[in-house]
Amino acid sequence: METVRPSIVLATLREAMSPNSVAPLPHTRRTTLVLSLTALAVAVVGWFDLYQHYDPHGPGVTVAALARAVPVLLCLYRPLGAWWLALAAAIATAVPTHPVSDAEPWPWAVTTVMSLVVVLTVIALRAPRRVLVALWLILLAAGTTLVLIRGPVRLSDLLPITILSALAPLTAEAIGSRGAAQRRLVVVEEIGQAEHARRTLLEERTRIARELHDVVAHHMSVITVQADSAPYRIADLPPAAVDEFGSIAAEARRSLTEMRRLLHVLRQDADAGAEHSPQPGLAELPVLIETAHRAGLDAHLSVADGVPSPDRVPVGVQLSAYRLVQESLSNVVRHAPGATVRVTVTGDTSALRITVLNSAPKAPGTPGTLGTPGAPGTTPGTAKAAGATGALRRPVEAHDRTAGTEPTGTGTGQGLIGMRERVAMLAGELRTEALPDGGFRVAAMLPLPPADATPAPTTPGAA
Q: By CB neighbour count within 10 A (0-12 exposed, 13-18 middle, 19+ buried), where does 252 fall?
């Protein structure tokens, strides 16, 4: 058997004696109403009980009735303080009173038992079991002492308070423990549901990525084969056309490589020996601008002298900057045909700043735009966010509505959302706005680590 150490007993007594060791019940309307009605019943019924069944003297019956009712109300604020006050009131009521007959219990009258049990039940909802046992033993010791002093000893006088003071708190503790277990179960279920929803979302994203790869890779493979075989299938092609087909095939292969790399990351492939081309970074921006030129876009790149060298810029920042420029150029190609684009890269040791500014489209009314100003169905509120006509006079709305997200457009509506996610991941800032002349501007600030931090690799690594 496990022995009870004296230190544990002393700690329990100190906890039972401290008025603030037990937190009060929440001050809800139901709790306040129940305890108030109980205190009123203890006061009223207790007055009649003492007056009829005991031998009170003068106004002492009223004082005793109120003294036993006050602790019930005090349970709302100091449960343990209310217990000691209730025990003191019970002893002070028992000492001067005498039962009018042997049928009346003593030292604890019926209403005294009611007051003590209610207070002990409230404590049972908040206090640990060891404190309840200590209070129960103190109550039995006080009753036994009074009976021994007054005499003769009748065990029947102590039996009701012994049973009720044990059963009521234990029942309240069991109910409270069940409620606490149910609350913990609800929390666990909510966490489980959140984890299940998150896992389902990740699985769905992975599935979509795989399906996207399967669909797009097929078409990109067809494009690559057709571009590579065009000089052999079509006779008398000029050298410029042969070079153009070669560029198309090279871009298709590069896109396939990036898609396979992305799918590899999503699948968490354990094959660490697979070959992957490096992720694009700042050094690949001129190649990206050249690709835009071949697509018919009048794009210009300007890199300021103060921009840190690539070996001082982390891989994630370089990749995000490249993707921001790539997405901006793609939006211009789709929604602002004929526009002039200026990509400006500035920065210092604290941040890298990317600005992509395009003019108004030179061919309004082509697919991807809503037409000329004043055309039917064209309003400032529905103009394209990128490459819109001069009718648009306000910034892009907060829900990241990109060019072509209207029902009549061809965009996907995910361009600016992806930009914002990339910038937010790096704790940067992104501003997108339509210009009064019909152009559009994308400005991003990507923070850089301190100069004394470990330098990033010169070439961004594989995914």
A: buried
Q: Cα separation of 175 and 205, whole Å? A: 45
Longest alpha-carbon distance in the chain: 130
Q: What is the DSSP letter of 305?
A: T
User: For 1-26, what is each residue's pLDDT tens digit?
Assistant: 445 566 666 666 666 666 666 778 77
User: Alpha helix (H) ranges present in 54-109?
Assistant: 60-74, 79-94
Rounded-to-integer distance, Cα 34 and Cα 1, Å: 42
**Model confidence at 414: pLDDT above 80:** no
CA distance 392 to 373: 9
pLDDT digits (tens, 9 = 90+) for 245-280: 888 988 888 888 877 777 766 665 444 444 445 668
Report the C-alpha gap between 343 and 246 in whole angstroms.
26
Sheet holding 298-303, edge to edge: 298-303, 340-347, 351-358, 440-447, 429-434
Exposure string (b/e) for 95-132, b if CB count within 10 Å is 16 or more? eebeeeeeebbbbbbebbbbbbbbbbbbbbbbbeebbb
Cα 317 versus chain centre, distance: 26
Q: What percentage of the chain has pLDDT greater than the value 70?
A: 72
Q: What is the CA radius of gyration of the chain?
A: 41
Q: Which domains does the chain have, with CATH numbers?
A: 6-153 (no CATH), 282-447 (3.30.565.10)
463, 265 contact by CB (below 8 A): yes
Q: Which of 106, 149, 457, 108 is nearest to 311 (CA)?
A: 457
Asked if residue 349 lies in contact with residue 452, where contact means CB atoms within 8 angstroms, the answer is: no
Q: CA 461: distance to chain centroid?
A: 32
User: How far apart are the C-alpha atoms of 352 and 47, rounded to whole Å?
Assistant: 83
Looking up tokens 């898609």 gives: 259
User: What is the C-alpha to C-alpha distance for residues 48 and 110, in angstroms, rounded to an integer?
Assistant: 11
Give the tens place of pLDDT for each residue, 216-225.
776 777 788 8
Cα distances from 309 to residues 320, 340, 345, 440, in angstroms, run: 16, 27, 12, 28
Residue 186 has pLDDT above 70, yes or no: yes
Cβ distance 413 to 334 under 8 Å?
A: no
